[in-house]
Design goal:
alpha/beta; 7 helices; Rossmann fold; 7 strands; seven-stranded mixed beta sheet
């Protein structure tokens, strides 16, 4: 499926990567749910039974984690090959996720479906011209007072190709028309060979 949301240079790289490489050879694959998301579940901020949408879910590590912990989960991704791997893992885990092959700007999810929506390193790939469209789509599918979680590259990341480095202003100006910001901070994510210091944003929002 063609993607209209990602920057063109990234769309071409991402299109077939899950067919060309094993997940362990893909730089953004960590083999686990992010500790920030795990902590929200552990603290009960995200409650069992919540309707959870994982935008740009890839092979679904976080989607599957949430399903294991009692959430009703939808994983959305533009790569069918990634979703195919997620379906295989779903069978191994013995849990259930609804997988949707769609662009994140047009998820096909019904209005006000989700209690929680997660963007795990997707926004930093969105075309600048499509940022407001993206924010509106998230606002459309999430319930009033629902939680939106966003993680992404920060402007403290090491320079390089790939995703855009986001300033606080990039994030706040995009999402504040539709959400209340509850938390915004930088954190150091899992290191990779090329990026030993991965300074990322972690934000929590409440739908207005």
């Amino acid at each position: 499926m063609e993607s209209f949301s990602f920057e063109n240079h990234w769309n071409e790289k991402y299109k077939d990567i899950y067919e060309e490489k094993k997940p362990s050879a893909i730089s953004w694959f960590f083999g686990t749910a992010g500790p920030e998301l795990c902590d929200l579940v552990r603290k009960g901020i995200i409650k069992r039974g919540s309707k959870f949408v994982d935008l740009g879910c890839g092979i679904g590590m976080e989607a599957l984690f949430m399903a294991v912990h009692g959430m009703e989960v939808i994983g959305v991704d533009n790569s069918q090959s990634a979703l195919n791997i997620g379906q295989q893992l779903e069978n191994i885990y013995g849990t259930k996720v609804k997988w949707i092959n769609a662009d994140v700007l047009k998820t096909t999810i019904e209005d006000e479906y989700a209690d929680v929506v997660s963007d795990n390193f997707i926004f930093h790939n969105i075309k600048i011209t499509e940022r407001d469209t993206y924010a509106k789509e998230i606002s459309r599918i999430i319930k009033k007072d629902g939680i939106f979680i966003l993680r992404g590259f920060s402007d403290k990341m090491v320079p390089g190709s790939g995703p855009l480095r986001l300033s606080a202003e990039d994030i706040l100006t995009t999402f504040m028309p539709y959400f209340k910001c509850e938390h915004l901070s930088r954190f150091m994510n899992f290191p990779t060979k090329d990026k030993p210091e991965q300074w990322h944003w972690f934000t929590i929002w409440i739908k207005k």
